[in-house]
Amino acid sequence: MSGTTDGTGDGTGDGTGETTSEGQDTAAGGGDGNTQYGRKKFSRSPGHFADRVTADGADGWPVAAGRYRLVVSRACPWASRALISRRLLGLEAALSLAVVDPIQDDRSWRFTLDPGGKDPVLGIRFLSEAYDARETGYPGGVSVPAVVDVPTGVLVTNDYQRITLDLVTEWTALHREGAPDLYPEALREEIDEVMEGVFRDVNNGVYRAGFATGQDEYEAAYRDVFRRLDELSRRLADRRYLVGDTITEADIRLFTTLVRFDAVYHGHFKCNRNKLTEDPVLWAYTRDLFQTPGFGDTVDFDHIKRHYYLVHTGINPTGVLPAGPDLSGWLAPHHREQLGGRPFGDGTPPGPPPAVEEVPPAGRP
């Protein structure tokens, strides 16, 4: 996520890599950072730093165990994609993890959750230091997810759309035994088509609604969100997963928005035609994924709520943090297994997360 913005231009909220209606790139990246909103229509741009970490090292960044550090916010849906993929593929030992504070200051993402307020591996206090090491004076947003080269401290990529696909297709030599194929070649065309609609109308649509600066703009985004959710609900009524009979990248990308829907998007972003819990199909589908190892064990509802409600001061100027919603329902039976499907295909579930990566009790149902 990139762009600390609140919709009023004071730089205290959420951007996620947006471009103004006049085409001026105001924040490159997939998540919250340092961008301010004016009175421009919200849209999202790709990551500014689009180098790839590949098996052949074509961009100068070869896959290597221990060389790179993945920097995420557990609040950010774009970063959560990478968290889930890394867990499912068993890359914890090969790609170390840094988790930033969900609350930003004027220098954006901070390592204040770590002892001394400094990342223990990179030795920096702010993710912006890795950006500066890559491009001095870079004017765009400081976004997550970000992959940083540990030996040099230089940002490699913040291309949130590509990072997870490369974890699946380029890091195969370091996958755990039994890792699932999250982007099977025979289904890629259909997966890409589904993901494009999910991205435009759901992942990005809730932001377009939440940061709309005019009624017509808001209502158009609102209609897109629920039109697409209704289509997805019909699609999932008689199939367990979005494409094929196993979990794919498409499910990961939809899950990261749905898991946040009632906690923040329904009220905070005014996507309030109905709650996720009021759509029996999507609610059961999301619970099914949440209860699948690698999904729910990466979700921190405390970080999610504190980021959205306390950082987006233009939307929530009082800074009051909602006490709800009740999280106990996330662990209720979903019965989606009756539809068949094999969550991991010919593979196996990941083991439990490393102890240092466990979500604290305050963030779990």
UniProtKB/TrEMBL annotation:
Q: Name one GO cellular component term.
A: cytoplasm
| PROSITE patterns per UniProt | GST_CTER
Q: Which GO terms describe its molecular function?
A: glutathione transferase activity
UniProt biased composition (Gly residues): 1-16
Task: Identify the Pfam families for this entry.
Answer: GST_C_2
**Disordered as annotated region, ranges:** 1-48, 332-365
Organism superkingdom: Bacteria
Locate the compositionally biased regions of type Low complexity: 17-26, 356-365
Q: Where is the GST C-terminal domain?
A: 181-308
Q: Which Gene3D superfamilies match?
A: 1.20.1050.10, Glutaredoxin
Q: What is this protein called?
A: Glutathione-dependent reductase
Q: Which organism is it from?
A: Streptomyces marincola
